[in-house]
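*** Backbone structure tokens ***
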Amino acid sequence: MGTLTPFPNPITPSQTRIGWIGIGVMGAAMASRLLSAGYSLSFYARTPSKPSSLSLQSQGAVLASSPRDLARSCDVIFTMVGHPPDVRQIVFDSDGLLSGLNPNSVIVDTTSSHPALAREIFSAARKIDCWAVDAPVSGGDVGARDGKLAILAGGDGEVVKWLAPLFDILGKVTYMGQAGCGQSCKIGNQIIVGANLLGLSEGLVFAEKAGLDVGQLFEAVRSGAAGSMVMELFGERMIGRDFRPGGFAEYHVKDLGMGVDVVEQGDDEKVVVLPGAALCKQLFSGMVANGDGKLGTQGLITVIQRLNGK
């Protein structure tokens, strides 16, 4: 596979070797875009037989036997997994990424995870002359497929700049500041998205109860002040009861929890009172309690419908 060309050597499809961990709805679409752009990509999957694994291999991706082996053969390793404990395991386990990284290689964690964990990974990477960037994304499955994700990056500014050729294939990157700032930005994003999804759900349920044509309401208000990216992404899906996931509802519970559970995290300086986000978290938890945690976040409307006897 040729020699490694880590930071600060320029990133090019012919020389830069990409590693990927996490091939769910989002991760598989993102990895696929990098392959289409001509990059050589290796990936690790806990379940190598899953369809997305076979699909990536058919596009030329190579399956690695462990995170450590993946790290040994790559310059930049992306992770897109479920929860902070998954990130911790992949990075810090005895056969995790840190045990195999070559000097100056870069971990880019696109999982929505905890800012404190992002800072911890950054420090651990620096100790072995490597780098870490927290770069959670927003835009769902459609944004991942079309390369239109909002990428929220924290870490070293020069490293984030260096990663631009890869980020540009996936979407639009904004550098938010030091390690952890990308994750904090994503939590802010989820607070805003959650409130939008709740307003959209309640507006549609109200319209139906009032005897309106819900599709007509959607067309009538989308270009006014009620219009939003959330409405464009999810309005028609809600009306058509298409709850296939871009992001799982259970992940939104996790993300909102990182915003509202600050006291439990022992960081008294940074307590923020977020009554709307707390309510949203409870309503998304309602989806999980109803057995719908693996549906898309647009399924929030089902909780409002159930509260209204539907």
